[in-house]
């Protein structure tokens, strides 16, 4: 069996989203134990001009759902970015999981050369599917998963690298 | 052309290592401008019980060189982890780049089912090549690239997301 575009995308995103929920739950435990309100937790940042925890999680789910849809050549489902609680964020992650699991491998396999055009900071940027997955979606997805972890880790949550990685 | 194990590994690592050098150079500029010594910069951490900048960079290069070698079925070259300056870190990244660029695609393509056994926190863990690349090496590599970025970003370096991503 040789590596395929599907195998390098959807199952990798599923694993990252499940790990993200796990990391957030540990953040929630920490916040409860310390009397930190969910509002404060969701607005916690590494530095004021970086995105807060809430937005980091929103972007991870966007990378997973948009990446999957665009590789399949369909218009991504729109999420409204209106979450204000941790439970709503968990539900967003679940919605993204349900959505990406709904794609068949056959929709994504063979998308190496499929044209993907997106706006990056206002500029239309065109990729082939393989470049989009390997050089845009995966680095972005892991960047925002890691930053979510780093925000919670720095805040004091009981997290270790194994929480980020998940079970093999 | 279909996605291959080589395409999903070596060129992705090359891009990440080049971006890492770029991010570190911006960190170096910041340190120079603020009179922060390289020794202090290399020991900067997000929180005292996380790894310092120096170690984050060492781990990124380890993931790239070990990942490449093990997928090719050869014993990875050993780096001594004895860097104490930024210039030595840049040289380590270059050494890793030279090493991984020395592998032929034919050594890594077809490694999906190749057995890879490594120690993770003291426990022997066995992967097939595809699982090792997608669920161990890539998340780890991007975790430590992102944490390097976050350490420097939080410290005050003039960094933006585009510095992390590099040019498409």
TrEMBL record, chains A, B:
<dbReference type="InterPro" id="IPR018531">
    <property type="entry name" value="DUF1993"/>
</dbReference>
<protein>
    <submittedName>
        <fullName>DUF1993 domain-containing protein</fullName>
    </submittedName>
</protein>
<dbReference type="Pfam" id="PF09351">
    <property type="entry name" value="DUF1993"/>
</dbReference>
<dbReference type="InterPro" id="IPR034660">
    <property type="entry name" value="DinB/YfiT-like"/>
</dbReference>
């Amino acid at each position: 069996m040789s590596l395929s575009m599907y195998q390098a995308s959807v199952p990798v995103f599923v694993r990252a989203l499940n790990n993200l929920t796990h990391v957030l739950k540990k953040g929630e435990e920490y916040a409860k134990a310390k009397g930190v309100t969910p509002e404060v937790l969701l607005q916690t940042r590494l530095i004021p001009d970086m995105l807060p925890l809430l937005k980091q999680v929103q972007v991870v789910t966007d990378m997973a759902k948009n990446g999957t849809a665009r590789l399949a050549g369909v218009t991504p489902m729109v999420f409204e970015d209106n979450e204000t609680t941790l439970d709503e964020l968990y539900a967003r992650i679940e919605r993204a999981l349900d959505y990406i699991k709904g794609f068949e491998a056959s929709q994504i396999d063979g998308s190496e050369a499929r044209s993907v055009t997106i706006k990056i900071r206002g500029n239309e940027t065109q990729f082939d599917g393989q470049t989009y997955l390997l050089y845009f979606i995966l680095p972005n997805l892991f960047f925002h998963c890691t930053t979510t972890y780093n925000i919670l880790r720095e805040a004091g949550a009981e997290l270790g690298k194994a929480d980020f990685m998940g079970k093999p």
